[in-house]
Amino acid sequence: MAAAAAAAAAVGGPQPPQAEMPATGLALDKAATAAHLKAALSRPDNRAGAEELQALLERVLSAERPLAAAADGEEAAAAGGGGGPGAAEEEALEWCKCLLAGGGGYDEFCAAVRAYDPAALCGLVWTANFVAYRCRTCGISPCMSLCAECFHQGDHTGHDFNMFRSQAGGACDCGDSNVMRESGFCKRHQIKSSSNIPCVPKDLLMMSEFVLPRFIFCLIQYLREGYNEPAADVPSEKDLNKVLQLLEPQISFLEDLTKMGGAMRSVLTQVLTNQQSYKDLTSGLGENAYARKSHEKYLIALKSSGLTYPEDKLVYGIQEPSAGTSTLAVQGFAGATGTLGQLDSSDEEDQDGSQGLGKRKRVKLSSNTKDQSIMDVLKHKSFLEELLFWTIKYEFPQKMVTFLLNMLPDQEYKVAFTKTFVQHYAFIMKTLKKSHESDTMSNRIVHISVQLFSNEELARQVTEECQLLDIMVTVLLYMMESCLIKSELQDEENSLHVVVNCGEALLKNNTYWPLVSDFINILSHQSVAKRFLEDHGLLVTWMNFVSFFQGMNLNKRELNEHVEFESQTYYAAFAAELEACAQPMWGLLSHCKVRETQEYTRNVVRYCLEALQDWFDAINFVDEPAPNQVTFHLPLHRYYAMFLSKAVKCQELDLDSVLPDQEMLMKLMIHPLQIQASLAEIHSNMWVRNGLQIKGQAMTYVQSHFCNSMIDPDIYLLQVCASRLDPDYFISSVFERFKVVDLLTMASQHQNTVLDAEHERSMLEGALTFLVILLSLRLHLGMSDDEILRAEMVAQLCMNDRTHSSLLDLIPENPNPKSGIIPGSYSFESVLSAVADFKAPVFEPGGSMQQGMYTPKAEVWDHEFDPVMVILRTVYRRDVQSAMDRYTAFLKQSGKFPGNPWPPYKKRTPLHPSYKGLMRLLHCKTLHIVLFTLLYKILMDHQNLSEHVLCMVLYLIELGLENSAEEESDEEASVGGPERCHDSWFPGSNLVSNMRHFINYVRVRVPETAPEVKRDSPASTSSDSLGSLQNSGTAQVFSLVAERRKKFQEIINRNSSEANQVVRPKTSNKWSAPGSAPQLTTAILEIKESILSLLIKLHHKLSGKQNSYYPPWLDDIEILIQPDIPKYSHGDGITAVERILLKAALQSRMNKRIIEEICRKVTPPVPPKKITAAEKKTLDKEERRQKARERQQKLLAEFASRQKSFMETAMDVDSPESDIPMEITTAEPQVSEAVYDCVICGQSGPSSEDRPTGLVVLLQASSVLGQCRDNIEPKKLPITEEEQIYPWDTCAAVHDVRLSLLQRYFKDSSCLLAVSIGWEGGVYVQTCGHTLHIDCHKSYMESLRNDQVLQGFSVDKGEFTCPLCRQFANSVLPCYPGSNVENNLWQRPSNKSIQDLIKEVEELQGRPGAFPSETNLSKEMESVMKDIKNTTQKKYRDYSKTPGSPDNDFLFMYSVARTNLELELIHRGGNLCSGGASTAGKRSCLNQLFHVLALHMRLYSIDSEYNPWRKLTQLLEEMNSQLGNEEQQPEVPILYHDVTSLLLIQILMMPQPLRKDHFTCIVKVLFTLLYTQGLVALSVKCNEDDRSAWKHTGALKKNTCDAEKSYEVLLSFVIRELSKGKLYHEEGTQECATISPIAWSPESTEKYLQDFCLHFLRITSLLQHHLFGEDLPSCQEEEEFSVLSSCLGLLPTFYQTEHPFISASCLDWPVPAFDIISQWCFEINSFTERHAEQGKALLIQESRWKLPHLLQLPENYNTIFQYYHRKTCSVCTKVPKDPAVCLVCGTFVCLKGLCCKQQSYCECVLHSQNCGAGTGIFLLINASVIIIIRGHRFCLWGSVYLDAHGEEDRDLRRGKPLYICKERYKVLEQQWISHTFDHINKRWGPHYNGL
Asked: pLDDT tier at 136 (50, 70, 90 boundaries)?
């Protein structure tokens, strides 16, 4: 077939006339043509058909037209027959679809092809941000990933999996057994289905084989045509994108083809890889001018990319790899002239800047053709190759990438594509370097490469056939070569070394990342890594690559002024070393685990050492590092160290066989040691002028992600050097590097030429700490992996309690992600459970939420706490302190040690035999002299010594005792000889014997001013001196530096003259230039001490008692037999000294004897020191400072305690118990007026008309009440399409319906008095209880306004924080001036009859309430009323039909009171059983609020005609007059009124303050109405039979004495009255079924009536409590009714309690009951005449609302996530980028979505206003966190979903399964109900309506 196609192509295209066919001709019946062609091609001799098809395709798929069309519309319209530019392409696509289907329907064709899909792979390709899964239990390759569908279809219970958001895109591996275990395949891909799939019929895809080559070629022509080489070096992205947009339909068409399954993919593979058809179509020969032009454009594009197109006769190098040898050769110092010229032609400008560099470049890539061919030669032989070329050229357009990846399930394609990708690798690198969108491009590259290189089989094949490794290494080398600069390390002028420049974009933007990550990926395959490790040429090249990073980012210490520009390049440098050097190293190391791989290690070590030697030569390094310079980057040293460690640990290699000579070891140790010293300098603030970034480097160097690639190898390398070099040389080098040599003198004063005095102490601590770490760390010296893990974990846990995820993060894992040691692996969990206890998350009342934490077990503190490990791993110094504090606390708590303990000494794991030499450091005289000197100085209180120094000295002595030689030879012969200048100090080198050696005199050089010199009298024995006898005995002189130089000379064996020169007998302790030495003079000190005697004296000094040390073995000989006594394991310095002396005694009998002797001699008292004037001055200063500090501490403590006590009174939102009642509610009879403290000016006084005081309040609109529902079962959050939440059963909805129903039938003004509003958008007022003068407040606001730094609230909106307790507030509520005494008079019970009281009430209400005169107080009252109105939106205030009617304001005002009472009831849990003052009670502002509301309500007098009070208390004579005027809407019948609203209206209409008896009177009257309403509702609820029964029983008792107080009588009367109307008649039979047939017993009736009235009683009791300050009694739930009614004065006092309580006994009828009831019923009957249904609905009121709740959430977060993260928004029908769901009502919204924006409000803000009147609680689906919107601010609240370790997973970064935390959700709900979001959450910010 291919031959036929080729023949047809050779014939040449159709003649021009044909191409000009008329438009109608083009629109032939495509299907018919296709069917005809298919038939023709099916014949055995199909040449004619083939030619005809070719001609048609040529015509349809000519690439000439469309692009012309894009340029020039009219022509296209004429030629293509279609409309505008796109028509021709669409036409062509239509043709293709028809032809492929061969005349049938395209959709049927697709279905037919899909039936033959044998795909056992999923292969779904996704792009960035897709949510996928990774299961480590099932994955073979760590890059394994599954789409959500395959994951949920497979069984992964109990596996270690996580969900993740794809960074770069990826593909599903389900079904691919190379990448994952088959057990993890999903149900669809488990079956190896290839067997039962029938083979594809030949004719089905026949047309595709003809059509697709032309189609793809057409696409390529478009791509060639559209690409214009940018003129400047800026690709004109607009043009590229334009072309891509035009091609969108074509590429999508190809993508759809790939989705048809395996059969179609194999056809596409044939087409894409067929070299013949490519050659025929694209050769650019033949007479078609357009094809020629297209070919030329292609060649130009190649050339401009810096690539050559080799002629065919050249054999293309990459195709046949040569055996063994590598592409790369290295030439020594030859000037690299060739390479630079032939680099990328577009990089010219890079090279101009670095001209001087070219000559010195040492590493040169040889310019043989083969090497160049990797970089510069490309020849395309198939469509696939050219398609990839254009994909790269166009910078990896997403669609193309997806198409190329969709083909991967086809195995043949996969191999071909991988080879093509490798062939283009260099070109990819060049394009990436030039790209402006390198981030996007990097992601797309990795998206492709990770699919190709994760497969070991494939990687191995490509490595063998295409030299993948050579290509990668070469490309990386080339890439870095473009940004090299000269290294300034060591020898600035003559250095030949070049390093990468970290400031270049290439490093700063991590552009190298995709290439390095590919390299790491392929090195994870053993077969590939082995090839790499065997290939010497590659290793050499790689070491050259690594050496570019050796010494980069050099820091020079600023000595004079602060650096003006802090460079931030250091992060780029650390990232580069970690990613480009360390990770490949870990990859290689993971393959060197067994003995058989020794050879590899030898190779690496060999080339590493060669590279290091070259480096030392290049920087001209001899033996002294340049001062004030440090680089943290020594990757070559670290490669060497890590391979050494591996060799000893895993491969059983002999260490000495891979170590270099002594001289090289000396050089190797210098730079790592320099880093350790610099760390100490940086922490001593000696680098402070370099800015913060140098601290940043010191921290990054030890930080958990870097430490095992940085500091650990460095310390290990130093340990190796120390174990092989002369110990005296090593020790003296250390002290010299740390610049503290001058300090190590016996003299009390010295001069240090290289260090300021203030840095000496911390540098000495640094040097000793370094030695301790060096000698006690065993990370690479014999610990097993599990031991290491345990030590790391203990160290982290000792610093702080940690969450599981932070532990995973802090423990340095093997950084190579493919090492197979996965964080969270089995060993991690088992070690964790062994060393730590889990602390479940706790909730503090303040609302700060804890996460689940791990805390060390007690035995870990006891035995495993290792301060050395802690010091090594701390990034911040404060963490060391934190660990010690925790250790101290543990010892105190467990009673092991009360004081301040010292860091404990910990036994170490035994050393690996190879490193035994390390312990010689502890047994060398140099160290012993240093220890002796320091002990002496500490005993003598010299300057600059600290407890830390002593601690480290003792630690070193103890280490020496623990690691001494087994058998102590008594007095080993001293190796005599004059050159041993310190032999006379100590006889041997064993610490055990040296400890007891007494040293008598020491000769020191001191400055002339030193106290030692001022001794005139010779040998006096007076004890007031330092004991420096000027006796010329055998005084010791010791110079560390001279010692080190001499050792160095010994080792190097230079000529003797030089050696003599160095060992000049300099007695100064510093090797300095002769001129700079200060005036020194010699003094001789009498010492007469040994280390043992010094220790014993130290014991006395530390304990502050003479002769405090007594050898314990004299009492208890047992001690010597079993020395491990727990008593010594924890304690302070005294314990440490005792422990050391015990160990010394144990090690040698001599020591034991000497200790006993020393203790026998009674120690003379330590002579008092003479203090010089200067010293006295400094001492005084110190003392004064100390005193000042103490004073300050005292003040602070006092302040803190004050604040604390205040906090307890004011801040406590959640725990009311500890509150002290505020002054506001206290009413003491003897005080005439309430007194308020102003928290601003601090004055106390009453609130007056002209200077009113106000309460600090927060007004907020609230819809919490409206969310009450009447069923107990809380609503669930919908998690399927079926579940929906309908809001019609909420309290707000029910009240809305009721009001609109009333407004339909009754007079508007009357309706607005019959109900309350504010269920939604009601105003809630809360206070912190603090008061201030209103004028003070105004000036406070003024100052806030001028203060620029605003903290999250807006002063313009009147917001502020209470000046005392900082609680958020936004208004001030004036306190009404009133005297409490008068208040008490009002409360006296009067004996007036109820009738008199009713009259008084009526009169008082009738008086018009004139607004008081214009005082300051009245102005404030007005302004606060305005504030209250503005708190809520207009729609929540205006319910009247006539806008702006006064009735509206009236309704609003009494509803504010209602809202606050109802909310307080809810805060008390919905009932008043607990009694007492409430949470809000002590800080309630209801009293003040009532005054303000009453003042305003009295302005609206109700017409006495319409005052409901009359209807309640009088019989109206003319009942019929109401019915007379039909046309006017009637008033609301009194039985439809809401009684609680009536109560508030009556009370607020009275002049304030209200008298108690008037209050009780109003309550009694209203209770009669309420009770009647209960009876009516009851009568409507029951059925006809019940009614007639009641009617009958009640009638019998009517004439008894207390008939008016019997519910039966009243009920029967109500039924009788209502039966007169049509209320009961309308009942159909269906109605009966709906109302439950309860059998109404007297008990259930009584309970119903009590429940009906209870709510009113609760609200009334609360009101009474606030108005008159009476306490609420507490009671059981069942007696709540009776208790409250007696508290309100409803129960007659003589009421007997023996009877079962009957609610009717509370009734007190103002007028005969039956008369008034019939009057009320008459109103109902006249209404039900016309509207029986509505009349009935209005009678049944639901008063039993349950407490409001948030929606119930599912147990597992995944159920929410899977449903919502792909759900489309109902408004914009898109899948939102940030979906969120409202937890109050379940609405799904787009967070920050511009799509759903309305009038500049985004959807969440809008919803928060509609649903919560400005408060919104949203769960962000993609982040699992909850966000709170409150008005114009928002805050992140936290998450209510935690993982198995009790941690949040914000943004689902870890992707572990999350489970609901009920306690947290409760806290959230509590804050919502109590309106305390503003007070409890601290981090608020403005949202500018953008959420």
From this structure: confident
